[in-house]
Write a structure and sequence with these properties.
The complex is a heterodimer of chains A (188) and B (62). By secondary structure, chain A is mostly helical. Chain A is built from ten helices and no strands. By secondary structure, chain B is mainly alpha-helical. In chain B, 77% of the residues lie in helices and 0% in strands. The longest helix of chain B is centred in the middle third of the chain and has 48 residues. The radius of gyration of chain B is 27 Å and the shape is rod-shaped. The N and C termini of chain B lie far apart (88 Å). Classes of the chains: A mainly alpha (188), B mainly alpha (62). The interface between A and B is medium-sized, with 42 and 25 residues.
């Protein structure tokens, strides 16, 4: 098992084998995260590629104590927000984060059963700032401190969003209804 | 409490996975080559400086 300190050291030396270890460990997780954020597989793929290229470009500037998972999720999340800003220039980050989702998740089509489909639908319907913390903590298993770093917020704010997000998700699953669509939502 | 463990994960298609890996490998190899190149010039410059310093010291001693 390679630990992050060893992998970071080897990445700084441009070791392609170390890159492969990191790539195999995080590629599916990052892609899944990006698909659930963007609800668009093609867009997620472009963002995924950019995320990995950023790692390679910044490899020599990684701090020895860098935690690669949170680092990669931070880059992926920020690239997604930048992409949203590029698409709708007049929207602030806060506006993008707080808007409800207008589009179904690609995962709804492939859900194995009704309860899974309802969970995917409810998750996809959450405003981005609740969806991202749930994805990072509940789905990806990041520690709350790591997720707070990824989202650029305090631990207290993270815990509040997580709590509110869980409650909103439960309400929406129970209601089995999607929220009203917001036509200004940033989507592909 | 909502159970998230049943949620599916998904991978990019195999072609994209390979393409991204290849691009990153290529970038890493180019960076390493550039660094080796820069290190080579640095080493050569340091050697030249050392030779010049020795020559100057010998001139002074003579």
């Amino acid at each position: 098992m390679h630990d992050d300190v060893d992998l970071v050291e080897r990445l700084k030396s441009r070791d392609t084998a170390a890159f492969d270890v990191v790539y195999d460990r995080f590629n599916t997780r990052l892609y899944t995260f990006l698909v659930r954020l963007s609800r668009d597989r093609d867009r997620a793929q472009d963002l995924l590629e950019e995320t990995w290229l950023r790692l390679v470009a910044h490899a020599d500037r990684l701090r020895p104590d860098t935690r690669l998972g949170p680092w990669l999720f931070t880059v992926a999340r920020n690239l997604y927000l930048s992409d949203c800003r590029g698409r709708v220039l007049e929207q602030s980050e806060e506006a993008i984060l707080s808007q409800p989702s207008p589009a179904p998740s690609p995962f709804e089509e492939t859900a194995a059963n009704e309860s899974q489909r309802r969970l995917e639908a409810a998750l996809a319907s959450l405003p981005l700032h609740y969806r991202e913390v749930l994805l990072l903590v509940a789905v990806e298993g990041l520690a709350t401190t790591e997720a707070a770093t990824v989202c650029g917020i305090s631990n207290d704010a993270l815990r509040q969003r997580l709590s509110r997000g869980r409650a909103m998700l439960a309400e929406r699953m129970a209601a089995g209804a999607l929220p009203q669509l917001n036509t200004r939502e940033v989507t592909s | 409490m909502t159970d998230f463990s049943a949620l599916q994960s998904t991978s990019p298609d195999a072609g994209a996975t390979d393409r991204i890996r290849r691009r990153c490998h290529q970038a890493l190899i180019e960076q390493r080559r550039d660094k080796d190149h820069a290190d080579g010039w640095l080493f050569a410059a340091a050697g030249l400086y050392l030779v010049a310093a020795i020559a100057q010291a010998l001139t002074f001693l003579n």
